[in-house]
Design a protein that fits this description.
By secondary structure, the chain is an alpha+beta fold. It is built from 6 helices and 4 strands.
């Protein structure tokens, strides 16, 4: 799929996990008039912004390194070496927050979820997203 250009974004994370978002998901969401929310890392986000400059990028941060470590450990999936690597990588990735239009701190999941919804709603109201609709309204008034 990578060679065929079928991914909107893709990455190899930690040298062993391969992830990607099929482009057809975006095409289907557009066809149905839906928002497509991607949960991707900074590599993938950079690829998406390069291909779709109007995409809305939201960086979701943990409230602290301690909380992030607790969350990783609670999953019970990683060895100590992997946890240490993830925490080092997290710091590097968080330093790239300036590449995003929005930053949300996930210290309380319900509030953070509402903030993501608010960003999505605001994005739907952008002038560029509504240009044709606004022009149709202006045209309904006739003349200049």
């Amino acid at each position: 799929m990578v060679e065929q250009g079928e991914f909107l974004e893709h990455a190899c994370v930690f040298g062993k996990h391969k992830y990607g978002t099929p482009r057809r998901w975006l095409d289907e969401a557009r066809r149905r008039g839906l928002d497509l929310v991607l949960e991707i890392d900074v590599q993938g986000a950079a690829q998406v912004k390069q291909k779709l400059p109007d995409a809305v990028a939201i960086f979701i941060l943990p409230p602290s390194s301690q909380v992030l470590e607790e969350r990783i450990r609670a999953r019970g999936q990683d060895a100590e070496e992997e946890i240490a690597r993830r925490l080092r990588r997290a710091r590097q990735e968080m330093e790239r927050y300036t590449e995003y239009e929005f930053v949300i701190v996930n210290d309380e999941v319900e509030r953070a979820g509402r903030e993501v919804q608010a960003v999505a709603l605001a994005a739907r109201c952008r002038r560029a997203s509504n240009e044709a609709r606004v022009q149709g309204i202006l045209d309904s008034f006739g003349g200049n």
